[in-house]
Amino acid sequence: MSVVKPFRIFNGKVNNKSTRIFGGEASGICDWDDLKYPALLQINKEMFSEYWIEDEIRLGEDIKDYRQKLTDKERYIFNTVTGYLTQLDSIANRFNFLLGYLTTDPSVAGCIQLIASFEGLHNRSYQYLTSTMLNDSEKRQAFNAPKEIKTLMKRNQIIIDKIQTFVDYVEDVLIGKAVEDEEKFFKLLYEALFAYIILEGLYFSGGFVYFHSLARDNKMIGSNNMINLIKKDETQHNVFYGLVMQILMLENPQLNTQENYDYAVNFIKTCVEAEKEWARELFTDIETLSIKEYENYIEYLANVICRNAGLSDLYTDNKDIKSRWILNYGEKNGEHRATKADFFQTNVINYSHEGGEGFDL
Ligand SMILES: [Fe+2]
Ligand SMILES: [Fe+2]
Q1: What pLDDT, in 10s, does the model give residues 114-133?
Q2: What does each C-alpha distance from 143 to 49, 72, 127, 313 come to in angstroms?
Q3: What residues sit around ligand 2, an ion, with C-beta below 5 angstroms?
């Protein structure tokens, strides 16, 4: 059976419940009461309940702050971070479409479709931020940063290569240029998913902290509010893809090797070092954030990725967040999205909420 061409509109001869999330069989009928992994229904509901749009955020004060309160360097970092977050969300948006095509579990597909739409919303949000505050040359600087700054390019290329290799392999099989090989498919999928988890959980989340640091200094509060809405989404994506990774290993025990464990550990360490190198270049000559604080936070995020993906903590000095202000300024506060809150108070459907732990696999 083909693992690369699994998507069928309908197959009445097999069960609605999928046999595997990748390379399995399912009828195509999405029955949320008949899932192989019922936890996915809850995740799907929780993601849906977070829907928002960028127009909910007011940036009037930020327009003044950007010109009057930020230093030249702070403005440069604001532009650069916004530029690379845009790049990462653009990759996420497209890569999710491929994963959504490849999965053979309709509930996984349902979650991935939502994630892809959120990534598209995030892209629009950066556009909203930049078109509200930046002039033409600043905007060019922001959006060209991922194509021009060598340290940033090096850091991003580590994950892009893994994802692109997988995409190319799938394409080669689809056009008949490569012979399908299930072992190769799962190896490349495993590596691409791991790279994607780094993109979501390390490179994104690290970038958000700059906005929190400005907010701590009473600058760019609206921008930080928007970032916190995005961050909440990304946290859900991390939980979902951590679960996907665990299911992948469960369903394909051949992936559960010491070699792959070592691969994952080395890959995280390589990405953490690349992130630190980039941070040392970017976050200089500013008062709001120190390199040491950032490095501790990156190590903490790497530990969270390890936990979500079923690995042991790699950075034992940073099991918890050391800079508590990141929590204070890095959580959505609800105030800025009163309209949405009101909507949910009057909605007859009252979704229950649970934490991301304790999946019933
Ligand atoms: Fe995103
Ligand atoms: Fe995401």
Answers
A1: 999 999 999 999 999 999 99
A2: 31, 17, 10, 34
A3: 200, 234, 237
